[in-house]
């Protein structure tokens, strides 16, 4: 009920303060908080009430080493952005651009290629975190 109320209040406030992520308007915050509460309620209903625990395993894997995942993903993203290679035409390109241009861009539209790149990155980190999870390695601060 709180989620639905947040969505309604955020949408009503949209008439005075537009829902705008870039400005983090109050209507944006209330609206998205309401949506997040609705999603949390659906997840709670599916996992805890209906018992679909097996489908929640990727979220458990990500959640048990969330800080390590964040740190490693940021480090990886930074590294593939600063490692440069020469292209065939002599120009320089970072590793991220080379991966995107050679593996994803040739067979998909720019939007779909970007989505595929993002999904493959998530799957890469799911694989790494699964190895840590199965070996019971939990990094805590």
What does this structure look like?
α1 runs antiparallel to α2 (26-49). The protein has helices spanning 2-13, 26-49, 57-64, 66-82, 95-104, 110-134; strands at 84-86, 92-94. β1 (84-86) and β2 form a beta hairpin. The two termini are 35 Å apart. It folds into two domains: 2-52, no CATH class; 55-134, no CATH class. The chain is mostly helical and 141 residues long. A two-stranded antiparallel ribbon has the order 1-2. It contains six helices and two strands, in the order ααααββαα. The chain is extended and about 60 Å long.
- Total strand segments: 2
From the N-terminal CA to the C-terminal CA, the straight-line distance is: 35 Å
The number of helical elements comes to 6
- Quote the average pLDDT: 91
Shape: extended
Share of residues in strands: under 5%
Helices and strands, with pairings:
Blueprint: H1 2-13, H2 26-49, H3 57-64, H4 66-82, E1 84-86, E2 92-94, H5 95-104, H6 110-134
Antiparallel strand pairs: 1-2
What is the structure about, briefly put?
The protein is mainly alpha-helical. The protein is built from 6 helices and 2 strands, in the order H-H-H-H-E-E-H-H.
Supply the key terms.
single chain; 141 residues; mainly alpha; 2 domains; two-stranded antiparallel sheet; 6 helices; 68% helix; 4% strand
